[in-house]
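Support request, please re-run this one:
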Amino acid sequence: MRSPRAVPTGAGGAGGAGGAGGAGGAGPDGRPAGGTPRAALAELLAGNRRFVSGQPIHGHDVTAAAASASGDQQPYAVVLGCIDSRVPLEAIFDQTFGSICVIRTGGHVLDRAVLGSIEYVVDELGVPLVMVLGHERCGAVASALDAVRGGRRPAGSLAHLVDQIAPAVHEVGVDDPGAHPMAIRRHVLRTVAALRADDLLAAPVAAGRVNVVGALYDLSTAQVTLLNPTRSRPVDHGRG
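Re-run finished. Output below.
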C-alpha cells in the first residue's frame, strides 16, 4: 500500500495542507498577523525552520513566562502530539509562552477529553489552526502493530491506546515491510479526518475559519513535514 505523499516545509510546503502556507508575517511577540489558518500554519513551519537551523528567537525563561501572564491567553494554534520525550512541541516550533496550546497523548490518540479540549480552544479562544503531529519510530504505533500481529491486546489502559491505533495498522497491512512508518502516517491522517468531521469543528472548517492539518516529525533531522490528506476513515474517538 502506498504511503501518503509528504510535503516539505520549504517554500511550497505550507500550501500542501488545505491551502495554508506562505509567509503570513509575525508580530513582535512571534504570533502570526491576520489570525487566519494560513498565517498560523506559516508561523508554525517558520518556527520549525528556525529550530532546525539552530536560530531560535524565543527563550523559555522566567521573564518570558511573566510577560505571557500579563494578559489573557491568545494562542494561535493547538498541536496534538505524542508523549515521546524527544519531541518537545514548543521547542521544535520555536514558540514562546502563550503562543500555542499543546495536547499530548500516547500516539496522539484522540479521546473525548482531548476532543473536548480542542473544541474549547477553537470555540472559546478562537484558535484557527489544529495540527496533529506524529513522529517516526512511534512506540505507541509499534505496540499496536505488535498487538495486531500477535492477536493479543495488552493489559491495562494501554489496550485503549492500541485499540485506537489498530485501525490504521489494519489499513496498511501488517505484512508490509514498511508497515510501521506507513501506519504512523495513516494514524495521523485518520485523526485529522476525525477532527474535521467533529460536530463542533466541521462548520468552521468548512467555512475556512479553521484548518486541521497532519504532519510528521523526523527525530533525526528535527524537521516537521506536512502530510497531504487522502481518503481515510476517521478514528472513533469514543463520543458517547
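The helical segments are 37-52, 62-68, 89-92, 112-125, 139-150, 158-172, 179-197, 202-206. The first helix runs from residue 37 to 52.
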